[in-house]
Q: What sequence folds into this?
């Protein structure tokens, strides 16, 4: 075989520094073997959004943003250099049959979680509609689920007006009997972003709702601890559903439904670190980033940073993880 | 008359959910009858700006952003579903005669406030030059005015160098004898954004000035309470003049004169809520948003949110409002 | 009823000149009566696109661009001042059931064309998938259709891989027996924009294909005359399906599938004028403009100009139109 | 005096090549002496525009774009290295008194042309409203004017509806008795961009109008020759008023009133070259470029190129110029 | 090994149609074996540009744009489905030592062309500085070179003022004795884009220069035939150096040095097709596309189309190629 | 000499208000005399950046942003109206020899600081590579330097992999024996933005490192006081090296290496004020702003504001400064 000086393959990094490994390099395509630790799967579905959304591009953009970060945490003095985040790739979506696309998400994630019991799967949306299948698959493979949903919105809309969309995932889970309301805690619900009818629905079904006002008064960490305690009493494992629009528009300018009055990014990061280390947490999704609307991929970059912080604190868990 | 399935008129919402009403739907065009409660009027004038400004587009953009929000406040557990915000439309501006445009703002607003004594008019600029006429009309119909001006700038420039512009409204009001300086409280005045000559003018005329430093030290709410107490001693009603550039550039990227060192949006919202509930407050304008400079209409969206929060707390006032 | 000076309703033009009427003002919402002449209907569907598309926004943007033009043609010395273009509004799309959305397009357009025999309906896409239903409805109400398709692409893809999408409308029409291939003439088909399999399909089904090379050699007008002659022999009426990506990327920068080597806008306008005057032409759609990708709405503005030129020459037709 | 190695003053070119002089370096600020040859003056007025316009920025942007070009014409094998284009700077505009701004343009240009009889002044708008004063000043100092106006629009609107705006300059000149209609030739007038009322006005006043159709049929050069012949019979000197929106939107994307169906840039350049060499031409303005709307300053760059081609061919004139 | 339904690997196409193969799929990473036919190599160097340039990103962007096209030419009725364009990847650049980066380009390309005698290498810049090394390597491996340079600029600047930059490649080749001027034909040289000093240099060294005026008068194809005839008399093989700024700014908006008065894309494509089929042509580079400045990757998309047309006509060559 | 009414020279402010002087007007080009007080020098080098950077444009943009501010501080009730900030202009960079460019920065700054002992030079980058030369020059003219580096990154990379880049300045200073590690304090170092190898290097060399976590726990002011105390024990003067990416992406969107988890702008401003007044501080650079990536020049505007606050507090220093 011939060699040629200075050539690097298309797609490889244009410059390498011996002392820096990119977080993106931790991503290793799944090769068919059993997987442990953190793994990601893309669910590039956003035609299910009520408003126009390019969130289907987020899995690819978040992966790229992983290349903005290195593997070293100075705060923890921990280097994830030898770590691996398995990349299962993306679930293939149907062009026109959106129900089938949602079914594929459920099927693929169920198979992945069934085969890879030791893996903590982070599903990258797509819009929030992907969580319905993701959570159903999670519960069927990992036991009774307790959900911590970060969101400005309930996502409890009726499914008759527009079908199963990014406004309905938690309604679907309840209506279809997958979960009951007490398995769900919602954090960051905001003024003028929801309907009273759906707040009533949340109450009627025993969903726990913490508003932005609650967070400002009590602190996110306090509410997270309270939520995990509560959920642990009736569920086996906790699943985080992170809709990035829980953040204020100044910190997550790339969500379709941005607005003022939301969380700042530092608080969210602190919350994710705490959840990352908590042994009850066994699944997560990150949804509602539309790279076509973002500024300099800020929101995807924050998502990549959250994946790294979560993985870092996950690696600090003791024992059975 | 014939009917055709699935048709909706041009301009109507492409999707409706039975459980959600858009804040924008609260806006009802004025039909010639007497008006109560909150009402909006557009004053689309920005050729009067010292620098290039597309603020004349803000009334239309803010109305559109009202469609980003619903009618339900979860923090107050109050639904404004059946509420109405009367929309008087926009005041027609002259293409080239800017003095006439300013006169039209005064005339129209005076007529509106004279005819509709029970209405709280929110005037949507346009640039800050619109406040001169708006406040004059307010005082002539509602009694001696006390003004709470949120602004990084005094807006007390001389009117000889460039005529009555967005840098001069409060100077005009004082020079023309409409108000005396003790009727005016300025909040959020910022370093390197004003001239000493005009600070001297403020002092000489008894204007109360709170800088950003004052706000950081004492808190916006404290200063607002102090301001309202003070103004109530000598005036009949309070008028809020909200120049969005009082905010830091990270939170209001769409103002012509953005800069660092300003207010954060949460503090402003809290202040507006308090003012909304205060029975002395009887008028407001929101100015200096240029939609052509904004990112994803963030600043207009914040203005729409402020209108909703103000209206919500306004509806909580007891008695005569 | 009270009046207030200088007020104009929200949405009305900020300035009016007595000597100029905007083309956009010719658009009159349908009021339930019988319609003659040119009419438009929006088919805001683009979730059916293979690639991400905001083409669903085009009907609204094209209407806005009608306000960029006046009613007067100096070339023809004809003023359409008193003309009317009926606006049937938009067909409401389902959020998640795309097949139902396509059915609604068919149903609504069939009903419109059935009720309004004297009207020439211009359907505004949306992506090219809307043409399948539009043409079926046209034929069922107006007799055997001859289609002149301007396009860089065949749109004859198989429907098994992704369902009925913007790559399949003419395949659907043939497969479903709505038309046979000899009812279809394709103009502007381009290199490296199609598959051989589908060229074979076109040939096997008797579709007439003129490439960009053919247009450059023979001239668009020549080929249009030849096409209309040919189609008139076996069909009753001609329908124009105008995919704006038949144009070169320099002239239609807002199509999802832009590319070099296409038509220039002057040639297309000339062709549309000729077709507008031709009494055989009885229907048209304009598709594949994505306003979120465009520069200064150039492509929608061109579409609006095409509607005006078509309407102008339509009004010159003699006799029964 | 001390020296420091490698320093260059703020604003100087970061790199200099001994073999290349920038066209921008030909611009020499006026120093109070008598001027010959080509000179530029900025008239940064666009608040007079009917629609929002940043055309006031064009003089500065066109000057910057002069730095994109060198001084050497390979086609003519002529180097303008030692040439000078005098830069009179910009006329200062009033912030709010637009009539005064227009008067200042007239006064300044009259004084310049009166003092500098040997200079050919190119006035850089701004919007087209600047031409009214510019042409009046031209005629009062240079004798009876013949005008060649490149434009998609008549600019003959009535001045009652909105005052003297960018839609009225030639109407003002006729109404105020400065010119009669036979002194004016309009080239490039376009469909659906004008009102019949104003076409009638043009005809009634003896204005010569060549449409885009005329240009396509007869060729721009032919019409220019015909126009100059005609104007020379009754006027002393010819003035070019170049509204860049005479060009198609693909070639001049930065004009406020862009549209399809216009001139291509090569034809315009050829026309300008011919006019540059014609000894009758003694004045020019270039208007209606809004740098805030342009793509990569394409339209201002073209304007700079036109100034260079005009100056090059001007330098080829024999005798009295 | 386990399998999971619907998964596709990161980076794979989200949708596949059985009848369409993307041109991008023709690109096969080099695997160390001998290569025939067309091959590409990226030379991602643009720190050598006189002005700020992101042209180093073009190789990756052009590859992506290959995915905008299919493999089928309808004009030639030829499908390149089974074809291969070998992708040698990118040559690794040094961060700060630009001379070393240029040397690496030379070394890598020399090795590639030496090893792969049957391959026609298309080097993707990068800026035009990459051509100096590319052409030297070409001549040393393929025999005496005749160069056809498409460019608005001579690129014959002195190397003393700024070193070997994107303004100097052909000067370097002559000064270093690699070529003599008669081996070089320049097409598309433009007014006000060059210095007289360098035109003199071209003449003194026997370089053949065809200006845009020459192309407009004689036609590009005529000049190309004349050029190839001339070069064939004294050289062994022809190398095309395609600086995309030979095109008019309307057709190549993404070149750093855009301007009016250039070639249209159709003419260039026609020229490339003719050169692609000409058996003398044995090498090519495509340079000066800055994806950060482009609109919708139009210029990179055109480059990808040119690669496809060149490859198509290359495949039509008879005999030894 | 002739005069002409209303003319202002190209580049002068279009509007002047008698009561406001722009901060930008404080900038006076150096005229060859001795300089005292604050002075700026541009070091427009960013080809040395590891990633693509337009930071070379920042000196010019920051100067422009100085025109966004006035000279009056209301918080200090101090007007800098009669102050002067000397502008030494920019150091001329070589097009291709980046080492020479770095040497020029060192030479020019050494000469400036040697000639002007009473001046506090603020060097405007450019990328962080400019600090190596700037600090070496500072120490050679002002005595043993103590460095306070605000940065998300160590900038202690090895220089073998890519030469002296924006990732290596402090490594270069240590390796070349210019400083020892105890002369350097780093503030704001962030997770996943650095390599462990370089943290080890910092520790091994006695560099003081405060992370973002440290700042959040202890407060920036506390750490600054501690740092200055420590540095004063072994050094003569303190130099601030301000990499703007120490800020969170929400507050400095225009840095090449933006990310979440950084400092907010108010804290930084407060720190800079304290340092400005501290008599030990004798030099500063501001680096890593890329105006081509910024939104509305927010980051350059903040840099200009920082220069003003620093200069204001600098003017409050007592005695020898
Ligand atoms: Ca959600
Ligand atoms: Ca949400
Ligand atoms: Ca103000
Ligand atoms: Ca203000
Ligand atoms: Ca199509
Ligand atoms: Ca198409
Ligand atoms: Ca005009
Ligand atoms: Ca015009
Ligand atoms: Ca070149
Ligand atoms: Ca070139
Ligand atoms: Ca740094
Ligand atoms: Ca840094």
A:
């Amino acid at each position: 075989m011939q060699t040629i000086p200075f050539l690097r393959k298309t797609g490889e990094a244009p410059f390498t520094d011996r002392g820096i490994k990119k977080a993106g390099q931790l991503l290793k395509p799944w090769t068919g073997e059993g997987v442990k630790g953190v793994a990601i799967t893309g669910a590039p579905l956003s035609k299910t959004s009520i408003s126009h959304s390019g969130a289907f591009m987020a899995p690819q953009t978040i992966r790229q943003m992983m290349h903005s970060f290195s593997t070293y945490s100075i705060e923890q003095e921990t280097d994830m250099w030898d770590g691996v985040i398995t990349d299962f790739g993306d679930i293939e979506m149907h062009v026109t049959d959106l129900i089938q696309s949602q079914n594929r998400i459920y099927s693929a994630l169920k198979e992945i979680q069934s085969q890879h019991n030791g893996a903590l799967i982070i599903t990258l949306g797509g819009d929030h509609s992907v969580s319905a299948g993701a959570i159903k698959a999670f519960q069927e493979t990992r036991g009774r689920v307790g959900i911590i949903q970060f969101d400005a919105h309930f996502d409890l809309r009726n499914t008759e007006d527009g079908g199963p969309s990014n406004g309905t995932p938690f309604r679907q889970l309840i209506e279809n009997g997958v979960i009951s309301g007490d398995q769900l805690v919602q954090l960051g619900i905001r003024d003028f972003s929801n309907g009273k009818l759906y707040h009533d629905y949340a109450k009627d079904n025993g969903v726990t709702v913490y508003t932005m006002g609650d967070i400002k008064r009590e602190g996110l960490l306090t509410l997270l601890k309270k939520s995990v305690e509560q959920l642990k009493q009736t569920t086996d494992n906790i699943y985080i559903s992170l809709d990035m629009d829980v953040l204020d528009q100044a910190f997550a300018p790339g969500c379709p439904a941005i607005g003022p009055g939301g969380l700042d990014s530092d608080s969210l990061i602190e919350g994710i670190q705490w959840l990352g280390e908590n042994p009850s947490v066994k699944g997560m999704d990150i949804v509602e980033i539309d790279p076509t609307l973002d500024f300099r991929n800020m929101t995807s970059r924050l998502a990549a940073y959250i994946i790294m912080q979560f993985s870092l604190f996950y690696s600090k868990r003791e024992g059975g993880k």
